[in-house]
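Internal ticket - ligand job 382, flavin-adenine dinucleotide:
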Amino acid sequence: MDFTLTDDQKAFAEGFSRFIDSTIVPRGEQVDRDKVFPTDNYKALAEMGYLGLGMPEEYGGTPADSVVHYLAQEELARGCASTFLSSGASCGLFGVPVRLFASDEMKSEILPGLIKGDLVGAWALTEPHCGSDAAAMKTRARKTDKGWVLNGSKMFITNGNCADWVVVAAKTDPEAGYAGVSSFLVHKDTPGFSAGTSLEKMGCRGSPTSALFFEDCEIPDEWLLGQPGTGFIQAMQTLEFGRVGMAAFGVGIAAAALEESIKYAKERTAFGKPIIKFQPVHFKIADMRVLVDGARLLGLRASWMHGRGECPQSLFSAAKLFATEAAVKCTDMAVQVHGGYGYMAEYRVERLYRDARLGPIGEGSSEIQRRLIAQETLAMFA
Ligand SMILES: Cc1cc2nc3c(=O)[nH]c(=O)nc-3n(C[C@H](O)[C@H](O)[C@H](O)COP(=O)(O)OP(=O)(O)OC[C@H]3O[C@@H](n4cnc5c(N)ncnc54)[C@H](O)[C@@H]3O)c2cc1C
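stdout (C-alpha cells):
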C-alpha cells in the first residue's frame, strides 16, 4: 500500500497551502466579525480554480482528482471555516446536484458563473421541524400546466439569503415517503420566494445562514432536477460529497488548533520555562497530532475511494464522524493550552473552538452517522 501523494497532487497542495496562508488566514478574524458572505475570499478562490475543482472543463471547471479536491478543502477549512462552509454550500451542495442532475441548458446557465465566483448557490433540505428526518418535510411542489408551484419553508440554509440560485427539496407525492421527494432549482427573483435575515450563530459567523419561504412560488418545468420522485436519492448522492467535505472541515480545523497550540506553548512561560516543557501540555500536542493524522487518513481514504466510485456509505460516515469529533476535541485542548488567552476573542483558537462545533451537527449529525455505520456493519454480520 502506497500512501505517498503523486507529484501533481503534492505540487497542487503546496501551492494551495501557500495561498491559504497568505490570503485566507489573515482575513479569518475579520470574516468572523463581519458576519456576511466572504465575497473577497470567494472571488480569490475562483481565481485559484478552487470553485471549479472537479467541475466539467466545458463550463470552466478545473480538472482534479478527488484526493486533490479533499486536500484543497482541508486547507481551506484550516484557513477559514466560514469561507469553507459558504463556498462548499455553493459549489458543493448546490453545484454537485446541478452538475449531476440539471439539463444541459441549466448547466450552461449556472455552472460557468458559479465556477467564476459570479454566482452563489445554496441547497435547501432542512425544515424548521425536521433535519435528520428529512423525509418528514412539509414543503410541497404541485404540478400545473406551466410547471410547478412550491409552498413551504426551509431552515438553517447556508447562503440562503445571498444565493442567486437554490436547490430545493419538496414533496411532489406526499403519500410516497422517500420516493415522493423531488428537487428543484429556484432563482432568488422568483415571485413567491423569500429569505429571512441571517441567523445569529455560535461559529462560522462569516457564512450566512437563514430560513427560506415559498408562497405559491411558480417555477418552470426546466427547473425540476432529474425525474420527479428522485429528489431524496439526489440528496443522498449530494451528501456523499458533503460528508467527505465535512471530514476535510474537521481535519482542517483540528490541524489549525494543533498549529496554534504548538506556537503558543513554545512562547508562553510558567514557573520559569516554556509551557511546552510540561508533560500535560506535551501530551495534549501528542493527542491532537494522533487525532489529526487519524482523521486525515480516513478523509483521504474516503475521498480516494469516492473518486474510484467504490466508497461504502459507512466510510463517508466514519470519516465525517471521526474528523468532526476530532476537531471538537482538538479545539477544546487548544483552548486549554492557551489558558485565559484561549478564552479571548483575539486568539484564533477561540474562533476555531466555536467553528468546530458545527461539524458533529451539520450534514447529518454524529448520531445519524453512527446509525448508518451500525446498520452497514450489522448487515455484514447478518
Ligand atoms: C450552521 C448550519 C448550516 C446549515 N446549512 C444547511 C444547509 O445549507 N442546507 C440544509 O438543508 N441544512 C443545513 N443545516 C441543517 C443541518 O443539516 C441540520 O441542523 C442537521 O441535519 C440536524 O438536523 P436538526 O437540526 O433538525 O436536528 P434534529 O434532527 O432535530 O436532531 C436533534 C438531535 O436529535 C438527534 N437525533 C435525531 N434523530 C435521531 C435518530 N434517529 N437517532 C439518534 N439521534 C437522533 C440528532 O442527532 C440531534 O442530536 C445547517 C445547520 C447549521 C447549524
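Auto-summary: The longest helix spans residues 231-267. DSSP finds eleven helices and ten strands in the chain.
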